[in-house]
Amino acid sequence: MQLETYISDLLYRYECVIVPEFGAFLTQRVSAKINADSNTFFPPKKAISFNEQIQQNDGLLAHYIADVEKIPFEIALEKIKKRVASMKSQLVEKENISLDNIGALALNSEGKITFEPSNHLNYLTDAFGLNQVVSPAIMREELKREVESIEKVIPLTITPERRKSRPYLRYAAIAVVALGISGFLGSKYYVNQIENHNQIAQETANTQLEHKIQEATFVIENPLPAVSLTVTKPVGNYHIIAGAFRVEENCDKIIANLKAEGFNARKIGVNKYGLHQVVYDSYENRKEALKALHDIRRNNNSDAWLLVKNLE
User: Fold this and answer.
1) Conformational region of residue 59, where left means phi above 0, alpha means psi within -120 to 50, and beta covers everything else
2) pTM for this structure?
3) Is residue 220 part of a domain?
4) Structural domain boundaries, residue 283
5) What angle, rounded to 10 degrees, do the helices at 60-69 and 3-11 form?
6) Residue 301 belongs to a domain with what CATH number?
């Protein structure tokens, strides 16, 4: 009977397989390792050992043989007993016993069984498909010394430059970085120039409009009595935003509705996204602005928010 076949099958699933009246084959998980001398990578595995002291039958091996061969448990025990007797006889006669994919057994001068494990199979199922890998060593220092020895015999004027880092790559990298920085600064400068231009253009348009209004004259045959009105110009750096709109006509509708509700609504210009902003009102005092914002969020618009900006 090929007893080692059944032992090998059980070693995949169990950490201890006892051969009654002979000994036990044990497995222990070993982590992956690298042999620096041979440049070999070894995956994790189950290391196999043999303990002659563990001989009490636990029924595992016999039950497995009985299930595989479809025989009674007692007959399986008899087969194991015969195989054990044969192995002991071989060891007494100084013969080595080779168990395929498990290892080799021998009897030493002290009458003890020695075991040399086999590395042909990895019984760790987690490492299935992983094999040992050998990677040739990279002999950088030896190659460097070899090149230096050649240079002493055959001096080449271009050799030192080849051995150094390529300067044109360094210059190219510097140029790329410089272009990136200049592009960024240039784009930022361009954006600032556009913003300044837009602001100046807006201020100029407002000034011209005010002049035209001031210079306009109206001829009325039956003039009404003069009425003096005090107009309060909205001031302050704290603005409660009601919304921002792409179409300016929508702003006028919103302003009309808000004024009908009693707010001092107005437009405060276009934000950086090109949207026309409408405010409920502007305040000089932060506390007053926050109080008004709280009231508006509670009673009118929960999406209202506070913009802190100097519009002058």
Assistant:
1) left
2) 0.42
3) no
4) 238-308
5) 110
6) 3.30.70.1070
